[in-house]
Amino acid sequence: QVQLVQSGGGLVQPGGSLRLSCAASGFTLDYYAIAWFRQAPGKEREGVSCSSGTASRTYYADSVKGRFTISRDNTKNTMYLQMNSLKPEDTAVYYCATKWGRCTLESGTYNYWGQGTQVTVSS
């Protein structure tokens, strides 16, 4: 069965770093678009970053540009989100997602989702 399993969340101080992982099983990530979304309490889910499966193009929300990096390791069938210079406003539940075709920061067309992992940025 298709499954995305996330890890790497936790509590970090402002200015710190975290690396989120999302391991895929039941399919191969190579030709899929990958993306990271986040949702804070009382707020809508927002797109953080995405990357095309058949091209090296990446996209980032303005709020995370220069701080976050999306990547994948096809050998491990795993996608990552490296988060640096974290701010309290980055606090949210983060979700990985995949879909066939071009990546987008709109969540509606993604058909596979991880379970979510909490990231809390606080002093």
In words, what does this structure look like?
This protein has strands at 3-7, 10-12, 18-25, 32-39, 46-51, 58-60, 68-73, 78-83, 92-100, 112-113, 117-121. It has 123 residues and is mainly β. Helix content is 0%, strand content 50%. The strands form 2 sheets. Strands 2, 4, 5, 6, 9, 10 and 11 form a 7-stranded mixed beta sheet that branches. It contains no helices and 11 strands.
Total helix count? 0
Q: Report the span from N to C terminus.
A: 40 Å
For this structure, the quaternary state is single chain
Mean pLDDT: 95
Structural class: mainly beta
Portion of residues within helices = under 10%
| H and E string | EEEEEEEEEEE
| Mass-distribution shape | globular
Radius of gyration: 13 Å
Brief descriptors of the model:
123 residues; mainly beta; seven-stranded mixed β-sheet; 11 strands; globular
Topology at a glance:
Layout: E1 3-7, E2 10-12, E3 18-25, E4 32-39, E5 46-51, E6 58-60, E7 68-73, E8 78-83, E9 92-100, E10 112-113, E11 117-121
Parallel strand pairs: 2-11
Antiparallel strand pairs: 1-3, 3-8, 4-5, 4-9, 5-6, 7-8, 9-10, 9-11
Summary, kept brief:
The protein is mainly β.
